[in-house]
Amino acid sequence: MAHMSDIAVARGARGVEGYVLRRAEPEDLPGARSVMLDTVYRDFGHGYLPQWHSDIIDLDSYYLAPEDNTLFVAVRDGVVAATAGVRGQTPASPPHPVEVTSRFEEGRTATIYRVYVRPEHRRRGLAGALVDACLEFIASRERYSGVYLHTDARTPGAVEFWSTRGTVLFDERVAVNEMRTDLADEPFQTVHFELQLLG
């Protein structure tokens, strides 16, 4: 049976010329962390927030150590250009809307996190190839019965990308902001998705 990292490379090789896609090793973590931190500062505009981004600082504990979790990286010339992670984490309410949490089975949900690509490496198929690797990993684990993710609409192309790969469960830009009275705060930009498990 092929090793998971071999599968990721084989699938990623199609249309992702010049990059190696594989499961992250400990030596990849500083580069992966750099991609993630750059994204939350540049694309989200708010930077690192401990309550939402603690996994970025401790990638090993969140992604490498647990058996049913993983982190994939796309590497070019020894530099991490893109990331995508899987964690066995069922969305909970709060903070997520009950319309989202009611769709998933507690303890059996894989959540895809940190699908980030450095700007100079975008539009080359890296995000799609990394997500394919994540979905193959999820399918290889008996534990999972559903796949969840949420994205920040401020990330260029994110909502369009995920809309081609999954179903929108809840769009906070519409459902929440229209009902809010505390408009002094920044509007919500989160869109929640359900992805299909691979057969």
Largest sheet: 7 strands, mixed
Instruction: Summarize the helix and strand pattern as letters.
Output: HEHHHEEHEHEHEHE
Instruction: Calculate the terminal CA-CA distance, rounded to whole Å.
Output: 18 Å
Structural class: alpha+beta
**CATH level 1 name:** Alpha Beta
CATH fold-level topology: Aminopeptidase
What is the assigned CATH homologous superfamily?
Answer: Gcn5-related N-acetyltransferase (GNAT)
- How many domains, in number, for the residues? 1
Helix percent reads: 25-40%
Q: If classified by CATH, what would the architecture be? A: 3-Layer(aba) Sandwich
| Major sheet: arrangement of strands | 1-2-3-4-5-7-6
Contiguous runs where pLDDT drops below 50 for at least 5 residues: 1-15
Global Rg: 16 Å
Question: Tell me, what's the shape?
Answer: globular
- Helix segment count? 8
Which strand-content bin applies to the residues?
15-25%
Number of distinct beta strands: 7
**Roughly what is the average pLDDT, rounded to an integer?**
87
Pfam families: Acetyltransf_1
GO molecular function: acyltransferase activity, transferring groups other than amino-acyl groups
Domain N-acetyltransferase: 19-184
Keywords: Acyltransferase, Transferase
